[in-house]
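Structure record:
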Amino acid sequence: MPKPAMLLLMSLAGCSLLGTRQQAGPDSVQGWRLASGRMPSRAEYAAIVASCQDGAVPRAQGRPLDACLADLGLKRE
C-alpha cells in the first residue's frame, strides 16, 4: 500500500506544478531590454535591481525602481 500512495502523492504534486504560471512582477525580467536590445539574464537583472534597491546608484535614490533601471540602461519593451 505505501508504494501506490507515494505514486499518487507524487502525481498530484506534479499536476499542481503544471498549472502554475510565472507572472510578471517587479522581480521579473519580462518586458525589459538592455541598451544593446537583448533581454538581460536573470542574474544580470537581479544584480541591477539589487544595486537600485541598495542605494548604490546615488542619482536614483528616492525614485521609483523603473526610473533607476532606466538610468542603468534597461528599457521597457
User: Anything to note?
Assistant: The first strand starts at residue 32 and ends at 33. Strands lie at 32-33, 75-76.
